[in-house]
Amino acid sequence: MHTIMNISLLGSTGSIGTQALDVARLLGSRIVALTANTDVKTMEAQIRAWRPEFAAMVDEAAARDLAVRVRDLPTKVLSGRAGVCECATLESADVVLNSIVGVAGLLPTYTAVREGKTLALANKESLVAGGKLVTETAARSGATILPVDSEHSAIFQCLHGEARGSVEKIILTASGGPFFGKTREELRAVTPAQALRHPNWDMGAKITIDSATLMNKGLEFIEAMWLFGVTPDQIEVVVHRQSIVHSMVEFRDHAVLAQLGVPDMRIPIQYALTYPSRLPSSAAPLRLSDYACLTFEAPDLATFPCLRICMEAVRAGGLKPCAANAANEEAVALFLQEKIPFLSIADFVQRAAEAQPAADAGDVEEILAADQAARRLVKESIAARS
After folding, report:
1. Which end of the chain is more exposed for a tag (fewer CB within 10 A), N or C?
2. β-strands 95-98, 76-79 pairing
3. pLDDT tens digits, the chain, 386 residues: what are they?
4. Hey, which bits of the chain come out as E strands?
5. Angle between helices 215-228 and 205-213 (to 10 degrees)
């Protein structure tokens, strides 16, 4: 029988956060903390629905506004990064689900694993920017990291009960995004509205753009290395347009295990929250007869270079992946504001990765310094064009 768990949900107003609340409602779980950046209206509604012990807003003005709005409730409102990190270490939380988007999720991830928490991780940037620090800290503290990304959840499930030394390679599947099959010439004039039309998944704007550039798969490539202790040479990326096979593992005997399901993030979210149990889900069942065929092919690294840049950055090591991620976050924001063309995103990612020395970080502050340096590179480049 499933025991009701207490969840601290970081990034509760985003796409993964709201779907996690759907899962928590189905499971009968209790939400002990909620955090967000600036979306006060949604946060107020969530607090009134869930009555958590704590709520935190990164933005100080938003936190003050929220405190006034919910002053009739016992929820304690915290603010800033410190408030989010406090929610990541609550003694009352059985699991911390980090669904914050971007490198902003790094500090809460590090704080949670340092305290030995069980962390359901949907924030891939934590491991892209600080993979070595986070995984080594988790190993020392005894923290458990359970992947929430659909691809990494699939790999995690395929590895269940298997000896890690028996793994030949990990096969990450990619949908290919909305521009699969396009040429670079065809991508020169694409708009944010076109890039946001993902064929299979309902995701937030930033992640959807990352899918369109294949940057998302580059970040997942790096994340898989740290989560599963494999080398870059042990990871292969294939484009699978139907998003039914969520990823695969090939073993030394060349047997391949795959995890399949409809493209619904509630499935991997629930598995992370209930692991190792499997409980009834609100997601639709997979009916293979609904699909005429499942296809797989190599990604086009020339047309979509962000994946290649990430693969090269993690091979070079150190803080190069951190710099690539930071530049991408800045460039995606600029593209969504229609200040740069689609193809410029990869250009900025490449420049930032090349500019960053391949030296390891000793602490979180060094990681965040490299992150800021890459962001400055993008901003200064844009300013110079003006």
Report:
1. N
2. unpaired
3. 456 799 999 999 999 999 999 999 999 999 999 999 999 999 999 999 999 999 999 999 999 999 999 999 999 999 999 999 999 999 999 999 999 999 999 999 999 999 999 999 999 999 999 999 999 999 999 999 999 999 999 999 999 999 989 999 999 999 999 999 999 999 999 999 999 987 766 667 898 999 999 999 999 999 999 999 999 999 999 999 999 999 999 999 999 999 999 999 999 999 999 999 999 999 999 999 999 899 999 999 999 999 999 999 999 999 999 999 999 999 999 999 999 999 999 999 999 999 999 888 889 999 999 999 999 999 999 887 76
4. 6-10, 30-36, 54-57, 76-79, 95-98, 118-121, 144-147, 167-174, 235-239, 245-251, 256-260
5. 100
CA dihedral of 128, 132, 136, 142, whole degrees rounded to 10: 10
Nearby residues of 200 by Cβ (< 8 Å), 6 or more positions away: 175, 242, 243, 263
Read off φ and ψ for residue 239, nearest 5 degrees: -85, 125
pTM: 0.94
User: Distances from the Cα of 166 to the Cαs of 170, 234, 237, 250, in angstroms?
Assistant: 11, 12, 20, 9
Token pair 């270079």 is found at 305
Between CA 47 and CA 51 the distance in angstroms is 5
Tell me the C-alpha distance between 318 and 359, whole Å: 4
Amino acid making up residue 219: L
Sheet holding 6-10, edge to edge: 76-79, 54-57, 30-36, 6-10, 95-98, 118-121, 144-147
Q: Are 78 and 87 in contact (CB under 8 A)?
A: yes
Query: The sheet that has 256-260: what strands, in order across it?
Result: 235-239, 167-174, 245-251, 256-260
DSSP 8-state secondary structure symbol assigned to residue 362? S
Q: DSSP code of 166?
A: G
Within 149-304, residue ranges assigned H as helices are: 150-159, 184-187, 192-195, 205-213, 215-228, 266-274
